[in-house]
Model the fold of this input.
Amino acid sequence: MSLPTASQTLTPETIRAALRTKTFGRTLHILHETPSTNTAAMALAQKGAEDGTVVVAERQTAGRGRLGRSWYSPAGENLYCSVIVRQTQSQTRLEEWLSWLPLLSAVAAARAIQAVAALQARLKWPNDILINQQKLGGVLCESNGSRSQGRFVVVGIGINVNTPRHAFPDELRDLATSLAAEAGHRINRVALLSALLSELELCIGNLSAQPSAEVKREYTKLCSTLGRQVRVSLASGESVEGQADAINPDGSLRLIRNGANAGTILDLRAGDVTHVR
Ligand code: BTN
Done:
């Protein structure tokens, strides 16, 4: 199927004309090709780039996903974007801020998708962006952990925007989707990027100002993992099954285990979740 086109060239001019943010994207690096926008943004942040600096690429040659996976990043179709966020919280809220940042970034992406493509994305814990249980996008946050350079986090977001369903590689075809595949027409990447940066600025600003209960409510509304039977692969290689019961105040997932350990509670801070039913 050939889809109608929408104006969507990522240039400094088109993006600046669409931007509605105070700081996010006001310093903007648009790359034709780069190994990974996250790697490029980390290097810029280490050299002192300011809060809200954004790196966008038309193509990534070594796009990275969570848990050491690669991120499918063909040229000219999708959004690959990394934002430098400098941490200004007092030490007491640092842990909370760091653990919620990836979750809230996924909320921001879902809101931008709703605003621009009129599609309701849902979230799979911790920060996978889904439509109809297929993966539409994801978030990879990386931080420096060093106080001397000022603490920062690079929030990397990938969204499959205009990749046609048939163009996904075989191993992704049944698992992944794109906005164009769902909407039946191409989606303007400039409008989506602008909405994404506005929502990110808002969500991250709120994260600094609100108590965690408020932040959690926002995430919980969109999280389709809650209440489901799930299998979680842990970094240790072990896998656990149970019911996803709640999101804890620190953003971890509360799991009520099945099987031999039925009824015991596990609080998971990381892992790869599969929705079993
Ligand atoms: C995931 O595994 O779900 C996270 C995917 C994150 C991909 C984005 S694309 C922009 C940024 N640069 C990268 O190399 N990765 C992130």
Residues 229-275 form a domain with the SH3 type barrels. fold (CATH 2.30.30).
